[in-house]
Write a structure and sequence with these properties.
6 helices, 0% strand, flat
Length: 113
């Protein structure tokens, strides 16, 4: 009985994993396909022609770069990511120092979450 329950748990876990991962896989595969394959009815799950044309159009220049300034957006995202990471590290270090050095009410409760 325990073996059947274990197998059922593994099958359920695998099914949930597939449900979660398939949209991400679709996005990654769509990045390497031409538009006609992305918009095909019925959907083509396995790409027929893999190409880097979409990446070249965005990062390599051309009309797409003029219409949508992707490199500028990428730099903005990097600035925000590094800034928020730096602020989180500073706040975390300050909190860690406070927990290590000072005694205050409900310290144990707060520390355990």
């Amino acid at each position: 009985m325990k073996k059947i329950k274990n197998i059922t748990n593994w099958v359920a876990t695998f099914a949930v994993m597939l449900i979660i991962c398939i949209p991400g896989l679709w996005v990654v595969l769509s990045a390497f396909r031409p538009n006609r394959e992305i918009l095909a009815k019925p959907a083509i799950w396995i790409p027929e022609h893999l190409s880097f044309d979409n990446f070249i159009a965005i990062f390599g220049g051309g009309k797409a770069l003029i219409a949508i300034p992707v490199p500028a957006y990428f730099i903005n995202s990097l600035v925000i990511a590094f800034t928020s990471t730096f602020v989180a590290i500073i706040i975390g270090m300050s909190g860690g120092y406070a927990f290590a050095r000072f005694r205050f009410r409900f310290k144990d409760s707060i520390f355990l979450g």
